[in-house]
Write a structure and sequence with these properties.
nucleotide-binding, 7-stranded mixed barrel, binds glutamine, 2 domains, Glucose Oxidase, domain 1, single chain, alpha/beta
Length: about 375
């Protein structure tokens, strides 16, 4: 690191951490959460579900392999700010196109390194996710940072899906094979047309559908069900996304319509919460959520345990599920809900990330389940 400008992180509870700036000068506010994944920092930074969140990566060395042109899960860095222990002086990887600190600056990220991320993580775990503020650059004041941290309204009640979504619908055609080889495949056999709601979608969800023979139309978050039905899809996917699911009334209404029409429906993360709300359940805000790539989740229907990728701060409240909803998956960390399916409609959803990226691929089978549902 060449310039060692100071930076500080203040939390609404009054804690202040000092470190050095590794991004641009400036200020940022958001909900501070920790992510325990040991790989996949570029995917985490570009996951739109992290909007309005300052993410602490507990893995101590971030940036070892630089950044590249393939791993981004959206077109830019999406999180509000970044907190790290250390960025190595040199990076090395055959795919790397940019140094990590240069990437942070080019992407205008306010980021702090050099603080005790273990102490910070313990604090967040014990007290719960905290609203916070990072100040980076020459003029930084603890008082200002604390004031800004306390002024952040918090994620509860924040509808961000419509904010991050696209404004126009578009087709998506790239699968994993094209990404890995940089060549277009001629083997495409498009069996199903899937309309995907973009609530802040991660690209790997789209690739995994293409890999399984789907033609894809991505639509904006507020697209009415009637518009989607005109496209005559074989199935609808409700994507992941940032913020609180409860205020997304437009998405909940659309999901209800698809359920009523018995159109195959698959929800991931925010999409899972939307399906839960559409079915009549409630969602709740978790203490510090799940953010990592090694969370054990049990499939209650066959007993298997899968290691999963996770990123959520809200959850479907199982106590509020109506009789036509079956709990299919549960977190083995805290027993919270991880999956549901409807008994009277072809609709199911998963709280974690079956598309992984980063993370293990154990839950990829859910994409196959969706394909089977459309085939039936
Ligand atoms: N990754 C996601 O889709 C997150 C869903 C929702 N914003 C939550 O935090 O719970």
């Amino acid at each position: 690191m060449t310039s060692a400008k100071p930076a500080l992180l203040a939390l609404a509870d009054g804690s202040v951490f000092h470190g050095i700036s590794i991004g641009v000068d400036g200020q940022t506010v958001g909900e501070v959460v920790f992510n325990t994944a040991m790989t996949g920092y570029q995917e985490i930074l570009t996951d739109p579900s992290y909007r309005e969140q300052i993410v602490t990566l507990t893995y101590p060395h971030i940036g070892n392999v630089g950044t590249n042109d393939e791993d981004a899960e959206s077109e830019k860095v999406q999180l509000a700010g970044l907190v790290l222990r250390e960025v190595p002086r040199r990076h090395s990887n055959f795919r790397s196109t940019q140094d990590f600190s240069e990437y942070l600056k080019a992407q205008k990220v306010v980021a702090i390194a050099g603080l005790d991320t273990r102490r910070l993580t313990r604090l967040l775990r014990d007290k719960g996710a905290q609203n916070g503020c990072i100040l980076a650059g020459k003029k930084i004041s603890e008082k200002t940072a604390l004031k800004l941290a306390r002024e952040f309204p918090g994620l509860k009640g924040m509808d961000l899906a419509k904010v991050v979504s696209v404004t126009k619908s578009y087709p998506w055609t790239t699968g994993s094979w094209e990404l890995a080889t940089n060549r277009e495949t001629t083997l495409k056999d498009e069996k199903f047309h899937v309309v995907v709601y973009d609530f802040g979608i991660k690209r790997n969800i789209l690739r995994m559908l293409v890999d399984r023979g789907c033609r894809i139309t991505v639509v904006p978050a507020q697209t009415k069900a009637s518009e989607v039905l005109k496209l005559k899809p074989d199935g609808v996917m409700l994507s992941n996304g940032p913020g609180d699911p409860e205020p997304c009334d437009y998405a909940i209404a659309a999901a209800r319509e698809f359920i009523a029409r018995k159109l195959p429906l698959f929800g991931i993360c925010l999409g899972h919460q939307i399906l839960g709300l559409a079915a009549g359940a409630k969602t709740l805000k978790m203490k510090f959520g799940h953010h990592g790539a090694n969370h054990p989740v049990q499939d209650l229907e066959n007993g298997t345990v899968m290691i999963t990728s996770q990123n959520h701060g809200f959850a479907v409240d199982e106590a509020t599920l109506p009789a036509n909803v079956v709990v299919t998956h549960r977190s083995l960390f805290d027993g919270s809900n991880q999956g549901i399916r409807l008994t009277d409609a072809p609709a199911f959803s998963f709280q974690g990330h079956p598309e992984a990226s980063p993370g293990p691929h154990d839950v990829g089978v859910l994409f196959d389940r969706f394909i089977k549902m459309m085939a039936a």
